[in-house]
Amino acid sequence: MRGFKHTVSPCFSAINSNAIGVTFNKAVEGTATFAVKRGTVTEEVAVTWNEAKTEATLTKSGNFTPAEYTVTVSGLEGLQNAENKVTFAAEEVKEIKILNAVVQQMNNAQLNVEFINQYGKKATVAANSSDLTVTAFNKTKGAALTLGSDKLKVNIPGPANAVNDEVVITVIYKTLSATATLKVAAPAGLAEVTFGEIVLPSGQDKITPKLTKNVELKYTAINTLGEEYKLVGTDIVAGTLLLSSDNNIVNPTDVTVTSGKLEIAQFKKAGTVTLTLVIPASGATATKTITVAADAGVPELVELEKAEASFAAGSTTAIKIAFTVKDNYGTVIAADKVVAGDYLPSSDNSDVVTTIAFGTGTDVGKLLIYPVGTATKGQSATITVLVKATGQKATIKVTAADTAVPTSIEQKGTVAVPTSLVVGGTTDIGFEIKDQYGAVLSTVGAEYTVDYVSSDKTVIDFTADANTDKTTITGLKLRAEAKKAGSATIKAQLKKGTVVVGEKAYTIQVVANVSEGSTYAVTPVEPIYSALLSADLVGETLGTATIATLTSAADKERAVKSGYAEKLELKVTRGSSTSVVPVSALAAAPTVATTKNDGSGSATNGNLSVFEYNGSYYVYTDTAFVPGDFTTASGGVADVKGKVTFTINADDGMKVVTQDLTVSKDELRAQSVEFKSKAPGASGATNVTAKPIDTVANLGSTGIADTYLWVKDQFGGYSLADTQTEAKALLNLVKGTNSEVATPSITVGADAANTLQTGVIKATATTLNALDNNATVRLYAQIGELTSAVTITVEKENIPPAAATTGAVTVAQAAAGIYAAGDTITIKFSENVDATKVIVANMTVSAAHTLGTAPTVAPATGLADTFVITLDATTDVVTGDTITIAAANVVDAAGNVAAAPVVFTLP
Predict the structure, then answer these.
(1) DSSP characters over 262-284
(2) Pick from 806, 812, 832: which is nearest to 824 by CA?
(3) Degrees (nearest 5) of the Cα angle 839, 879, 851?
(4) For the chain, is the Cβ count within 10 Å smaller at the N or the C terminus?
(5) What values do phi and psi take at 661, rounded to 5?
């Protein structure tokens, strides 16, 4: 009997044409799993439970095909009768119900008809089904009525059909029929609306401007007859019936009704907005408050790595503080994507810090805080970084401390120093000196020296260690050379006199150049571009027009920097040590050979060559490959195959190592698009994400400088956009905050040779207008789905001030129409202007009249758009007089001067 208590027994049945009911003999504990199959085909069903967990409903999105189904439940303890058969017959309508209480006096008056199936549930019957017949007859008038746009709509227009007329409606479906006599009622209007939720697109959990488009706003509505109502376009007239608290977030014109469905086309920016629907028939209103989150990648908050930092009193070297920016999804925004214009840094003490910047290049991801050189020990400033979009702040307190002294010597750069070298190999190491605060010093006192030390110069010695200038220390470096097998520790020591105050040490294992017991491997070679390494790729012709012959060091350097010369590197592993085989250990330069794809031999039209640069070998295309080189014997197309061969001159004999390589059949394809501070491929270039300009006029004249477009291809080069013509074809302008862009026109700076971008990008002045202070324009480049953008902040708008278009002059008079002492004349400009220039001395009254001997004007200082002139007893101005202020005396906050004298006519 104990087992019986835990027995769970389900009962299965069809409860609708698209649903199966499963009833259990007791409340279900645990998780039940259901399977519904028609033969071997599994049907997708959604499972819902009643509150008591005794009944489950398995619902299909459409109707079940008439057939027998096997239903199985699993996953429950003590389960019996786990499987059963359920048969579905074709859905049949068994009953017709006419639900209208009245029918409206209008064309297309809706009939509310329900069709009930064999399960007692609503069945779906198309309004224009061939099996459906509907008739309508005005019994009061004795006249037949026509149907509307479908069979469930009736035309009952007035005055032929009067209110309270009786209309007989008959609905016939196959062999079933229903009849109802309905009274004609006056047309019903919208009476009440309740807004529901916004239906977010799949995968979204919040509304954002970029991703949330054309979404449905759920609602319920009833008409003045108490019936369910579907909105129509005239119910939400923008600006009169539908209002928005902020048109810049949701404009009512973007809210429409289609087939009764309420849709919002777009959310223009982040923020909170309230939509209000006014319902004239009832006087009721419906409101919906919507919060629009910033797009992914838009800064929400900024975090600084520390809350306090010290710096050397008297130093002006930047304090570098790492920061992290996150968007509203909590996702960290890449440091090189941070736009300085999105933030407002400030200092509360200008005696300590006045300049704060966001780092670029090697300092990207760091806040640069520049101390004032006169700051004394103990003085401090709190630095605040404000996120403009959200108002969120991060702070750090910086305090002047002891004067800087050299305390450490560190490796410069991030390239790892090898832990092992083959005899004959070398490694270069650069250094920099830092103070006790971690700041890099550009000069040190004469008492400081830098020495390079090797624990065993017979194993590792220095070939270049003479750079010990103690006043110019920015070029400190050494080159260590492996002399013989063994181990040695090399050090760079910072000394004050004879005392070592800091050192950087490296222990390097030197292995013999012997093949026995060694494993050699060539680093896999990236696919090689098939085109000639020439002006098209490098920017300058190398060799002749048809063959690239690299002879000078400058030619080789350009070839390496171009990205189209692939590095050839041979490594040797002995025991646990892996090293690069130096050039000195090779019998000769490595050789390369390719084979034709059609199997006809080793010759191809194209050719590869090898050159040495800075102790490494590179392979490149010196004669362009042609389409025929990539044709296979079967007529297909494939990469050209080849091999690179290294011959090692080891101390114990010769060794040959090969590696496969390919010449790619593919044309250049963009892999990334970026704006940078130097020409494509140049070293030391930093990302450009934001640029300030003084005025819009400057965007069309001087443009934005030091901005180059880099388009990197799959071979690592930048030839897709290294000319004006190529770059310009990819550039576009779009509007940003408070800006309007008409038909953009981009110019890449003048370069008669048209060989390289020049780093000056302009927009024609006519394309930009009505820009407010700190408005933004976005310059972007696009290739396919790849984009990059520079946000250009126009620090000053360029619209000249003028008289206000409405309400330019108003007066307050003791006696209407007469100007006398104490009366006031209020003049209004189109924007704030410099009050110190809007004075009586700069005002000219027509007809030789005067405002008086001592009238006043307020305000007298600052910026304002409205000024009040108070007259005295000596005034003689009359209606129709004009007050004129010269253009030069009407100056706005941005320094713009009125285009013409500003004239105010007295009423």
Answers:
(1) EEEEE--SSEEEEEEEE-TTT--
(2) 812
(3) 30
(4) N
(5) -145, 165
